[in-house]
C-alpha cells in the first residue's frame, strides 16, 4: 500500500537503486574471489620456491663433504638460503596484500602451514646447522645421510600444502564461474523485470490515457478511466476524469451557454450602439442647452423614462441649476430650480460623484423626495456629469414604475455622463476662446483707431479752432491755408479708415496664405500705385486658419507703413514654407535709422508694436532691419507651424 502512494519518480529510483546494489554485490564478490585466486596462485609459486630452496640447501651441504671444497663460501651460501627460506615461510604465513599473496583462510591449509613451520623450526633447521658445524667429513656424511629422509618428508609436506592451495583455488574458480553465471541470469531477469515494471508503471497508464483522449476526441465524454495508483499517473488519471466530467457538463449545457453569451453580446452591442449614438450627437456643434436636451431626450427614449432633467453647477458656487427638463411639472421645476451641494439625493451625487438609482417606495429620511412622489414617480436615478475629474453637474431620470439599474447599466449611464461633461466643457472652452479672440481683436482695433483716426481728429480739431480764429480776425489768407490743411487731414483720415475697413473685411478662404497675400498686394498696388511682387517657394503643410489671419494682418500693417512713411516705389514679398514658414517684406523707400544713437524705440511705434503682438500671439519671430536711404526689410519666421487641414 505504501508503494502505491509513492511518486512515480521515487518508484523508478528505488528499483534502479535495488538493481544497482544487487549488481554491485555480485561484481564485488567476483572481484573478491578473483583477488583470492590471485593471492593463492602467488602462494603456490612461493611454496614451490620453498621446495626448491630445500633441495638447494641439501645440495650445498653435500658439496661441503668433498675434498678441496671452500667450506666458508658454502657456509655463507647455506646461511643465505636459510634466510631466504625463512622469509618465504614468513610471507606465506603473514601474506602480502600488495602483491597480492596469501594462503586461503581454510582451517586445513592454516594447520598444514603451522606443521610445515614447526617441521622447519624443530627438525630441518637444527639438522642443517648441525651438519654445517660438524668438523669431520665422516661425521658430516653421516648427518647428511640422516638428513635426506627428513628432507623428503619436509618436501612432501610442502607438496601437500601446495596441493591444498590448488584445491582451494579450484573451489574458488568454480564459485567465480557460478557468480558470473548468476550475473548473466541477473542481467536477463533484471531486464525482464524492468520491462515489466516500466510497462505497468508507465506504458500502460500512457496507453490508457491515450485511449481516453481518443474517445474524448470522438465526443465520448462519458469515458472514465480506472485509477490504479496514487503516483503522477494516478493524478493525471484523476485530472482526466475530472476534465471529462467537466466537458460532459459543458457539452450538456453548451446550447444554454451559447444563448447566454449571445444575449451578453447583444447587450454589449446595444450598449456600444447607444454610446456611439451619443458620441456622434455630442460631436456635433451645438449650444450647452441643446446638448443637454438632446442627451436627455435620447436617454428617456432608450430607458423608457417618463421624466428627466439636467442640472449644472454654477462657476465658483455650490448651487445646482436646472438647465433643461422634460416631462416634469412646472411646480416641481420651480421648487427645485436651484439645489445646494449635498441637498437631497441629487446634491449628494453632485458632491460625492456617486451615482444613485433609488426606489421611492422605500422610506428614507429625505423630505425633498416627497416632491418626486407627489408627481407620481416611484423611481429616480441621479448620474454625475464629469469633465475629467471634476463634477460639473448631474442628470436625473424619473420613472412611474419601480426601476432600479444594475451595475452595468449604471456604468453605461456614467460613461454617457462623462461624454456629456466633456462636450459641455469643450463648448465652454470654445466660447471662452471666441470671447478672448474677439476681445484681443477689439483691443487691436482700438489701438489702431486711437493711434490713427483719433490723432487725425485731434489735429483737425486744432485746425478748426485756428480757422475760426483766423476768420474772427478777418485774415482770409491764413484761413485759406488752414482750410487746406483741414482738407488734407480729412483726406488722410478717410484713407486710414478705408484701409482699416479693407483690413478688417479681408477673409482667408481655406487657409490659403499665398492667395490672400496676392490679393492684398493687388489691392495695395491699385490704391497706392506702388509696384509689388510676390515669390513663393517650399512645399510645407498648410497652416491653420487662425495663424494665416494673423500673418496676413502683419503683412497688411507692413504695407500700411510703407504707404505712410517709406516713400517707396516698389515692395517685394517672399514666402518660404518648409519646416518653418518665413515671410520677408522689403521696400526700396527712404528707410530709417535703427542704431542706438538714433533714439529709435520700437515700442513707441504703434504699428510695429501691433505687429509684434500679433507675432507673439502665434509664436512667431519678427525682426526689422532698416537704414537711411536703403529701405526697410521685415522678416517674419513661424518656428513651429501648426498643421492645418489639407
Can you describe what's shown?
The chain is 65% helix and 12% strand. It contains 15 helices and eleven strands. It has helices at residues 8-63, 71-94, 107-133, 137-217, 232-252, 254-282, 288-303, 330-335, 344-352, 369-374, 407-473, 476-505, 513-528, 545-566, 606-617, and strands at residues 307-313, 319-326, 338-340, 356-359, 379-387, 390-399, 531-537, 570-577, 581-587, 620-626, 632-638. A six-stranded antiparallel sheet has the order 3-2-1-6-5-4, sandwiched between helices. Strands 7-8-9-11-10 form a five-stranded mixed sheet, covered by helices on one side. Helix 1 runs antiparallel to helix 2 (71-94), helix 4 (137-217) packs parallel to helix 5 (232-252) and helix 6 (254-282) runs antiparallel to helix 7. It is elongated, with a radius of gyration of 63 Å.
Oligomer kind: single chain
- CATH architect. name of the largest domain: Up-down Bundle
Number of helices: 15
Radius of gyration: 63 Å
CATH class of the largest domain: Mainly Alpha
Reading side by side through the largest sheet, how are the strands ordered? 3-2-1-6-5-4
Amino acid at each position: 500500500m505504501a508503494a502505491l502512494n509513492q511518486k512515480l519518480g521515487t518508484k523508478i529510483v528505488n528499483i534502479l537503486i535495488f538493481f544497482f546494489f544487487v549488481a554491485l554485490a555480485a561484481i564485488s564478490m567476483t572481484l573478491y574471489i578473483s583477488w583470492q585466486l590471485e593471492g593463492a596462485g602467488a602462494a603456490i609459486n612461493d611454496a614451490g620456491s620453498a621446495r626448491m630452496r630445500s633441495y638447494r640447501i641439501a645440495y650445498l651441504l653435500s658439496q661441503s663433504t668433498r675434498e678441496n671444497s671452500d667450506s666458508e663460501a658454502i657456509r655463507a651460501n647455506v646461511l643465505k638460503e636459510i634466510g631466504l627460506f625463512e622469509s618465504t615461510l614468513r610471507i606465506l604465513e603473514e601474506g602480502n596484500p600488495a602483491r597480492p599473496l596469501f594462503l586461503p583462510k581454510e582451517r586445513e591449509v592454516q594447520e598444514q602451514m603451522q606443521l610445515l613451520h614447526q617441521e622447519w623450526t624443530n627438525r630441518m633447521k637444527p639438522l642443517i646447522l648441525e651438519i654445517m658445524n660438524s668438523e669431520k667429513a665422516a661425521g658430516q656424511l653421516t648427518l647428511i645421510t640422516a638428513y635426506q629422509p627428513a628432507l623428503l618428508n619436509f618436501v612432501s609436506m610442502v607438496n601437500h600444502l601446495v596441493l591444498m592451495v590448488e584445491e582451494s583455488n579450484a573451489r574458488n574458480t568454480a564459485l567465480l564461474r557460478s557468480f558470473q553465471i548468476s550475473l548473466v541470469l541477473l542481467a536477463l531477469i533484471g531486464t525482464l523485470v524492468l520491462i515489466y515494471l516500466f510497462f505497468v508503471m508507465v506504458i500502460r497508464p500512457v496507453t490508457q490515457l491515450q485511449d481516453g483522449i481518443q474517445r474524448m476526441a470522438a465526443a465520448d465524454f462519458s469515458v472514465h478511466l480506472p485509477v490504479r495508483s496514487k503516483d503522477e499517473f494516478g493524478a493525471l488519471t484523476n485530472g482526466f476524469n475530472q476534465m471529462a466530467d467537466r466537458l460532459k457538463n459543458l457539452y450538456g449545457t453548451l446550447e444554454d451557454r451559447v444563448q447566454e453569451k449571445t444575449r451578453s453580446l447583444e447587450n454589449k452591442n446595444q450598449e456600444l450602439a447607444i454610446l456611439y449614438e451619443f458620441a456622434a450627437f455630442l460631436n456635433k456643434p451645438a449650444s450647452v442647452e441643446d446638448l443637454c436636451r438632446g442627451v436627455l431626450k435620447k436617454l428617456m427614449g432608450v430607458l423608457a423614462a417618463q421624466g428627466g432633467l439636467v442640472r449644472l453647477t454654477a462657476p465658483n458656487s455650490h448651487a445646482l441649476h436646472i438647465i433643461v427638463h422634460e416631462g416634469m411639472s412646472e411646480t416641481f421645476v420651480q421648487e427645485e430650480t436651484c439645489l445646494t451641494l449635498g441637498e437631497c439625493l441629487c446634491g449628494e451625487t453632485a458632491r460625492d460623484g456617486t451615482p444613485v438609482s433609488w426606489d421611492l417606495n422605500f422610506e428614507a429620511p429625505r423630505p425633498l423626495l416627497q416632491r418626486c412622489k407627489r408627481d407620481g414617480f416611484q423611481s429616480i436615478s441621479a448620474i454625475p456629469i464629469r469633465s475629467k475629474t471634476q463634477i460639473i453637474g448631474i442628470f436625473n431620470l424619473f420613472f412611474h414604475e419601480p426601476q432600479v439599474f444594475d451595475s452595468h447599466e449604471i456604468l453605461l449611464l456614467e460613461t454617457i455622463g462623462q461624454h456629456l461633461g466633456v462636450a459641455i466643457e469643450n463648448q465652454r472652452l470654445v466660447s471662452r476662446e471666441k470671447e478672448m479672440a474677439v476681445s484681443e481683436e477689439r483691443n487691436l482695433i482700438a489701438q489702431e483707431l486711437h493711434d490713427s483716426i483719433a490723432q487725425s481728429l485731434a489735429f483737425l480739431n486744432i485746425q478748426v479752432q485756428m480757422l475760426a480764429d483766423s476768420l474772427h480776425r478777418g485774415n482770409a489768407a491764413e484761413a485759406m491755408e488752414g482750410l487746406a490743411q483741414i482738407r488734407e487731414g480729412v483726406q488722410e483720415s478717410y484713407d486710414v479708415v478705408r484701409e482699416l475697413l479693407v483690413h478688417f473685411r479681408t477673409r482667408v478662404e481655406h487657409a490659403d496664405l499665398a492667395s490672400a497675400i496676392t490679393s492684398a498686394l493687388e489691392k495695395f498696388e491699385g490704391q497706392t500705385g506702388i509696384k509689388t511682387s510676390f515669390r513663393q517657394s517650399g512645399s510645407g503643410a498648410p497652416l491653420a486658419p487662425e495663424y494665416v489671419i494673423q500673418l496676413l494682418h502683419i503683412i497688411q500693417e507692413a504695407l500700411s507703413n510703407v504707404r505712410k512713411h517709406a516713400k517707396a516705389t516698389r515692395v517685394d514679398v517672399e514666402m518660404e514654407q518648409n519646416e518653418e514658414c518665413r515671410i520677408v517684406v522689403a521696400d526700396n523707400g527712404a528707410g530709417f535709422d535703427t542704431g542706438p544713437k538714433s533714439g529709435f524705440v520700437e515700442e513707441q511705434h504703434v504699428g510695429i508694436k501691433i505687429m509684434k503682438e500679433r507675432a507673439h500671439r502665434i509664436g512667431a519671430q519678427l525682426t526689422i532691419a532698416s537704414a537711411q536711404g536703403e529701405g526697410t526689410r521685415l522678416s517674419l519666421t513661424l518656428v513651429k507651424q501648426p498643421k492645418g487641414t489639407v
